[in-house]
Each structure stands twice: as C-alpha cells, then as structure tokens.
Write a structure and sequence with these properties.
There is one protein chain. The longest helix has 9 residues, at about 70-80. The chain folds into 2 domains: about 15-120, no CATH class; about 130-170. Helix content is about 15%, strand content about 30%. A hairpin with an 8-residue loop joins strand 6 and strand 7. The radius of gyration is 19 Å and the shape is globular. The two termini are about 20 Å apart. With about 190 residues, it is of the alpha+beta class.
Length: about 190
C-alpha cells in the first residue's frame, strides 16, 4: 500500500495575545508526547486576508504536534481509523480584513477552529529499519548525510544524543504497522 505525506503549512497566520503576561495554563506548558492535565489557553490566531481552509498550520512552534482544524476536518478525522491519542482544544480564530489600504486591520471572528493536539504512538515499532533510509543534519550545520539503522535501539540511541535533526529519505513500514490498517498516522 502506498501512503502520501500530508504537510500542513504555509497559511499566513500570526499570534494575537489580548492578555498581559502568560497564564499558568498557557500552551507553552504543553509537553511533546504527553497529554496535559490542564486545559491549555492558546494565543488568538489571526489569518491575514486569506480564506480559511479545513486544515491550517499553527504558530505554536515545535513544542507540540498538531494543527488547526475546522468542524469539517474534525468530522473527517473522527471518521477514519487513526489510532492516535489526541484531543481537540478550542481556538479563537480571527480573520484580518482591510477596508482601505491606509486603515489599520480590522478583525472578525471566523468559524470555530480547534487545535488538534497529537500524542504520538510508539511509531518506532512500525519502522522496517533494514530498508528505511534516514538522513541526518547536524544541529549546527547544514550538511545532510544518509544514515541507516539496524534496529529501533540503534535509532533511539542516535536520536537521544540530540545532535542531529533526523528525517526520512525513504520510509518502509513493517508487518506490525500493516496489521493496524490505519487510514492516517503520525511519524515525526
């Protein structure tokens, strides 16, 4: 079976924070791969004079895995076999409009959006390491090099050193993954 990579990015967004300082439950306190014990508060998201889409990248940085979704996208994600530990958090989405070029932007509330927060499954158990080709880039450099791992332990050890950004040139998934029959999945 062939899967396609979905990248949600490129929507012109910026943050707007109507409060002073950061609340204790601000989204910066979210941890990667850990479901929070609190309901996080997110910055307002402002769309720059473009129509809203079903899936939108967020400005929440690399501290979490997720993206913004409207009701249509949320219904779709709930209807498929995804095997994801996730939660939806409401987002205040504002749409920027300019009446004249000399006016400062005015805003109106867009349709409801949610931040689709994902806690990744243990995806390393799904990778066929003998076939997969990874690439590594030193954190303080720009030279890419292809790299292979014999098994998940070797991969996890290399990744734990936190000296490289790691990506996939060619990803092969094993029989354990194939038995899951997923419609969509997340591999960071």
């Amino acid at each position: 079976m062939k899967y396609f990579r979905i990248i949600v990015w490129g929507t012109p967004l910026y943050n707007y924070e109507p409060w002073k300082g950061e609340p204790d439950n601000f989204y910066y306190n979210l941890e990667i791969n850990k479901m929070p014990t609190f309901d996080p508060v997110f910055s307002y998201q402002v769309l720059e004079e473009v129509p809203a889409t079903d899936f939108i990248s967020s400005t929440f940085g690399g501290s979490t895995y997720g993206f913004l979704v409207n009701q249509k996208a949320r219904n779709f994600l709930n209807s498929i076999n995804a095997d994801l530990n996730h939660k939806y958090y409401p987002i205040k989405m504002l749409q920027e409009i300019n009446q004249k070029a000399s006016d400062s932007p005015a805003y109106y509330h867009s349709t409801p959006y949610w931040y689709f927060f994902i806690v990744n499954p243990d995806y390393v158990d799904w990778i066929d390491f003998k076939k997969t080709i990874f690439f590594a880039r030193p954190l303080k450099g720009d030279i890419l090099q292809n790299i292979r791992f014999e098994n998940s332990e070797q991969f996890s050890l290399f990744k734990s050193e936190e000296k490289y950004d790691i990506g996939c040139e060619m990803l092969f998934l094993n029989d354990e993954f194939k038995r899951k029959e997923l419609d969509i999945f997340v591999i960071p």
